[in-house]
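Let us work through a complete example step by step.
Step 1: write down the sequence.
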Amino acid sequence: MNCGEMDILFKRQTIFRVIMIQITPQKNQIAAALLKAEKLGSLNNSICNGEGNVYGFLGEIIVSEYIGGQIKNTYDFDIIKNNLKIEVKTKRCTSKPQDHYNCSVAAYNIKQKCDVYVFVRILEDFSKAWILGAINKEDFYKYSVFNKGNTIDNKSSLKWKFKADCYNLPINKLKNIKVK
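Step 2: predict the structure and record it as tokens.
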């Protein structure tokens, strides 16, 4: 293989790194999220039986403050900014996310009337959070892969099992967040 062929092959590969935004959640943000989660309790179809609500609320707070949006917290979207309806999807985690990790939307949530998904990961101890990136709703469903609940993720070396039917897209397919 000569250098010209190598360049062509390299250009065909998708080499794109999302710049994950690392944030240290503040005590007042965590307290606000805990209060909201306590008031909410457990939602129907909750994958974690309500245990993940505090992380979801903290993700919404972090993103809204980062982008300067207004929390609306409706069924269809969480934040609005410049008439853009933003749905924040948050996962708790035990380590820094890798760019091949999945961003997920549960199959029962596909009818939400949002324009954009923003994905967040938060360490279980609340010490760090990452805004992973964003993608418009239409593109998410165009490029994501559907996985049936209770099946093993064949891309995971840890044989991770999907908890519910969901659509998944790797972090490295997201767009960076731009604040205007």
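Step 3: interpret the result. The chain is about 25% helix and 25% strand.
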